[in-house]
Amino acid sequence: MHDPKKKTRIMPVLRLYTKAALKYPWLLVLIVVGGVIIEGASVASSLVVRNIINLLSENKPNAAVVTMLFITLGFFALTAIGGWVGQRLRQIGLTYIEPKAMNDLTSSAFAYMLGHSHDFFISNFSGSLTRRVTRFGRSFENVLDNLSFNFFSTAVYTSSILVILSLRNLLLGIIVFAWTVLFIYIQVAMARWRQPLRVARAAEDSNVTGVLSDAIGNYSAISLFAADTHERSIFDGALEKWRVATLKSWVADNWIWGVQGIFVMIMEIGLLAVGILLWERGIFSVGDFVLIQLYLIGLIDRIWNIGNAMRQLYDAFADAYEMVEIFEQPHAVQDAPNATELSITDGSIDLDDVGFHFIEGRDVFKNFTLSIKGGEKIAFVGPSGAGKSTVIRLLLRLYDVTAGSVCVDGKDIRSITQGSLRRAISFVPQEPVLFHRTLRENIAYAKPDASLEEVIDAAKKAHCHEFIDMLPEKYETLVGERGVKLSGGERQRVAIARAILKNAPILILDEATSSLDSESEALIQDALRILMEGKTVVVVAHRLSTIMRMDRIMVIEGGTIVAQGTHDELLNHKGSLYHKLWSIQAGGFIADVEE
């Protein structure tokens, strides 16, 4: 996660933003040309005003002077038109390049984030990750606007007036140049001094979003535990940290503005004094005096804005860098450079001498070996924490093994693409997650081009068509975030319908009937038996009645297969773990019969 004490690294952000902008070179050209025209017109218009002032102050009204004034006014009109044209060119460039680049950046951020491992997502707030993705794209607008409107424009304007003032009087040029360099240096130094405070504020802002998202996403738990006060204290604590970070940042702003004000006063008074002395010696005309004032006002306005722009720019970099940190994290699970597409012919699964741990030194599996034939139906049972679900995660390659290998159809799954592996597997988890989309979209998620008839057929087989058909909007009903508008059993049946529609050669069921009542479970068992035909099936179950017809049942304890066989074979071993589990679930029925 982002460390607020770390300084934002600007170059990685600039590299990504530059790459995004260079995809549209002609739009960048419009921005640059427009900016040059705007500042050139501004510098030229002040020179025209100088000439008008000199004509007015050095001549008495007559036809020749009036004619010259109107000719000069014509030049002023040309500078105004030029400035307008420059504004339009720059605006057209920005209008078209920013949405395109922001779209590209946000899309790339989303794509890269999706490539991260299962562990990455369970270790981060979803709200904070969402904010990082959106900020990354939107910060581009702030960066490009500031670079074009402030930094580039200031550079063009300042260099132009320095040349003109130096040609008019070298001392003036040297004074303005020295003051400009010193002022910009101080602004940069103060902005860098303030930047950690901005980063800290951005980090606390993301934390507030994450805490808020976490609370909203778990509102039912808050309500059931009557934990409103507790959650408010957590949220208020996050808000307080944000308030303190914001206060420090804004106090720093006030100091910066105060220092800038002093430097502006010194410059204004100093240049006015030099102008008066030069006018006294006859070196300067009244028009020159006005020219200095116009240039000074323009320069101060631009350089003053540089300070504000610098703060906005650092804010944008701080926001964007939160996503760049994610870009800099390599994907924990990656496709090999020469990874191939998996094409299932047999459906066999082999775990050979597998070692795995979540935490170094605490092995979940060590020298774990298992062979599943193509079309075989096996089940894993055992106490919580035995490693049943971990086997599923390794098969889906949500994690990579730390030793040994996992093979499908004789191919190490690290040598095939993750996408093709998961397309070959239908997975029904214990807690099915649905999108806040229609029932039709959720069922057809594994086969987006499925017809409504195919969706309905899968729903009927999963016995969810009955409740869907009773809804006012039927298959176009929105299910709410994570499917909260449906009951647990209804969500489970929709997930099973999705798996039926996918019809992949390998089927994994992780407590797939755990949320169903007895009547629904009986119906689903019929659907699952149809679904299992001709497939390699791996089932994780606590409810042993659901796996009695499996070809093999694996009893796992402490990451080791302690027994395996059919249901009847395992029950014959009195005192075994499986016998104990069955006795508990049967409520002592078996023991009573045997006695």
List the main descriptive attributes of the protein structure presented here:
single chain, 595 residues, alpha/beta, ABC transporter transmembrane region fold, Rossmann fold, 3 domains, six-stranded mixed sheet, 19 helices, disordered N terminus, disordered C terminus
Structure description:
The chain folds into 3 domains: 10-327, ABC transporter type 1, transmembrane domain (ABC transporter transmembrane region fold, Up-down Bundle); 334-424 and 505-595, P-loop containing nucleotide triphosphate hydrolases (Rossmann fold); 433-503, P-loop containing nucleotide triphosphate hydrolases (Rossmann fold, 3-Layer(aba) Sandwich). It is 64% helix and 10% strand. The chain is built from 19 helices and 10 strands. It has helices at 10-21, 25-58, 63-114, 118-122, 126-168, 170-217, 219-224, 228-280, 286-327, 388-395, 418-423, 439-443, 452-461, 465-469, 488-502, 518-532, 567-571, 577-585, 589-594, and strands spanning 349-359, 362-372, 377-381, 403-408, 411-412, 425-428, 506-510, 536-540, 552-557, 560-565. Strands 6-7-8-3-9-10 form a 6-stranded mixed sheet, with helices on both faces. A 4-stranded antiparallel sheet has the order 2-1-4-5, with helices on one face.
N-to-C series of helices and strands: HHHHHHHHHEEEHEEHEHHHHEHEEEHHH
Q: Strand order of the main beta sheet, please?
A: 6-7-8-3-9-10
Number of strands: 10
Q: Which band does the percent of strand residues land in?
A: 5-15%
Q: Can you tell me the CATH topology of the largest domain?
A: ABC transporter transmembrane region fold
- The first-level CATH class of the largest domain is given as Mainly Alpha
